[in-house]
Design a protein that fits this description.
The complex is a heterodimer of chains A (248) and B (192). With 248 residues, chain A is mainly α. Chain A folds into two domains: 149 residues, no CATH class; 68 residues, no CATH class. Helix content of chain A is 72%, strand content 0%. Chain A is built from ten helices and no strands. In chain A, helix 2 packs antiparallel against helix 6, helix 2 packs parallel to helix 10 and helix 3 runs antiparallel to helix 10. The longest helix of chain A has 31 residues. Chain A is flat. With 192 residues, chain B is mainly α. In chain B, 65% of the residues lie in helices and 0% in strands. In chain B, helix 2 packs across helix 4, helix 2 crosses helix 7 and helix 5 packs across helix 6. The radius of gyration of chain B is 18 Å and the shape is globular. In chain B, 57% of the residues are buried.
């Protein structure tokens, strides 16, 4: 399952996308220095904000299930490899207390950052994220920020196109009894090659269509409206990060 | 057509390949901390189809989109946590590998042997960055990091290199930007 934007009119949805991205970056940096109390607080804040954005935290955790497996591996690997006093005196369970703590802190940081990232993705329109990226790239020299923004916009729109074409081709192949083929390699080539040829031709036609319509880099920019709510959100996030730094 | 400074065909193609890298990451076969994904296959395809500059741009846009929190990383994740997480080394490795493979393909004018050697070099670059990163994250020894972060993927990589070569062979003639300008007119375009 892939989590994308969910439209809504909650407080979290209404915050300026630039502030959300800045908050995410700030938070990612601060979380590198937090310990257990800070992480607990941050986890609680992430879950409360997800609930405030009308996105069930349980649903989000299910979306991150492979990531959770990975985090479990980190904890296990750290517990086994870090030297220290053993948690349980048993030859089959070689984990140490120090290793377990280090692993839990690392996994907790990654989980909290992933949850905040998810919060931004769920509550921000891709077009707003694109505009915010463009806004942030503007002062950096030698980076064609509008080209980058166009590419991000196209990337976001190509993903569902590829998935839809793949589903369509899969149906067509099933109608032609592809399931009778025993060789899995055959089945993959029968699906993969036409799919790729089709998506590449679609992209090439799209480029021709854009060219025919004189698509250039002189675009009308996104109209930003930053209200007091946005500044309050920025202040809150900064205060929260300062608090996290203070208690760790 | 007037001189257009912007190469729209390459721009759109680079975006498509970035999207394919993302879709390649959705098909996850979890075998441990680093799952088997099709991302590196499309990184190699991007490098051969687009050349060094645009391939690196394509991967950079993919990483940027992921860093901004769009769900493009393996398993549908996104955010800085993934980018600097245990698999981050592979993601940055993609960027360098795309540039190097593209560069090799350009230097040797798309000769088949050079392209295949280039892809082998590219795959090794991905591991050269990904495995030490993984080692640092998990606190493992080099031998163990190689055992979870490289050895299980080598058979898959050989298949992926073969597949990437087949894809590029199949797709290159279809593309507008892949043709040489002097003999690349389609029937729909009248001779000027």
């Amino acid at each position: 399952m892939i989590i994308g934007f969910h439209s809504g009119r909650t407080v979290v949805h209404r915050v300026d996308a630039r502030i959300k991205l800045a908050a995410l970056a700030l938070f990612s940096l601060v979380s590198l220095r937090t310990g257990f109390p800070g992480l607990g607080l941050a986890l609680a804040a992430a879950l409360v904000l997800l609930a405030a954005a009308r996105c069930s935290p349980l649903h989000c955790l299910r979306g991150l299930k492979w990531y959770l497996v990975l985090l479990g591996c980190i904890v296990a690997a750290r517990a086994v490899t870090t030297p220290g006093e053993p948690v349980v005196a048993h030859p089959w369970l070689p984990g140490t207390r120090q290793g377990l703590e280090a692993g839990l802190v690392l996994a907790g940081r990654l989980l909290v950052i992933a949850l905040f990232g998810l919060l931004v993705t769920v509550t921000t329109r891709p077009s707003h994220i694109r505009a915010a990226v463009e806004w942030y790239l503007r002062p950096i020299p030698f980076i064609p920020q509008q080209q980058v923004a166009t590419m991000i916009g196209l990337l976001v729109r190509f993903i569902p196109v590829i998935l839809a074409q793949s589903a369509e081709l899969d149906d067509a192949l099933r109608a032609r009894a592809i399931e009778q083929r025993r060789n899995p390699l055959r089945r993959i080539t029968h699906l993969g090659m036409p799919l790729l040829r089709r998506t590449f031709v679609t992209a090439d036609r799209l480029a021709s269509a854009m060219e025919a319509r004189c698509y250039g880099m002189e675009r009308t920019g996104h109209q930003w409206r930053t209200g007091t709510g946005d500044w309050a959100a920025l202040g809150l996030v900064t205060g929260f990060c300062a608090l996290l730094l203070a208690i760790s | 057509m007037p001189n257009q400074p912007l190469d729209l065909h390459r721009l759109v193609l680079a975006s498509l390949l970035a999207a394919l890298i993302a879709v390649g990451g959705y098909i996850v076969i979890p075998i441990g901390p680093v799952p088997i994904v099709l991302q590196n296959l499309f990184v190699l395809v991007a490098a051969l189809l687009l050349g060094s500059r645009w391939a690196a741009a394509s991967v950079a846009v993919y990483l940027l989109a992921g860093a901004c929190g769009l769900p493009v990383f393996a398993g549908g994740g996104g955010g800085l946590g993934h980018l600097f997480g245990p698999r981050g080394g592979y993601l940055f490795g993609f960027l360098i590998a795309a540039w190097v493979v593209g560069r090799i393909s350009e230097t040797f004018r798309q000769r088949p042997v050079a392209e295949i050697i280039g892809m082998v070099v590219g795959s090794l670059i991905i591991y050269a960055i990904g495995v030490p990163w993984l080692q640092m994250m998990f606190g493992l020894g080099l031998g163990k990091a190689l055992a979870v972060g490289m050895y299980p993927f080598i058979p898959g990589d050989i298949v992926k290199i073969a597949a990437a070569y087949a894809i590029v062979k199949g797709v290159r003639p279809l593309l507008h930007s892949g043709r040489r300008p002097d003999h690349g007119r389609s029937q729909a375009e009248p001779a000027e």
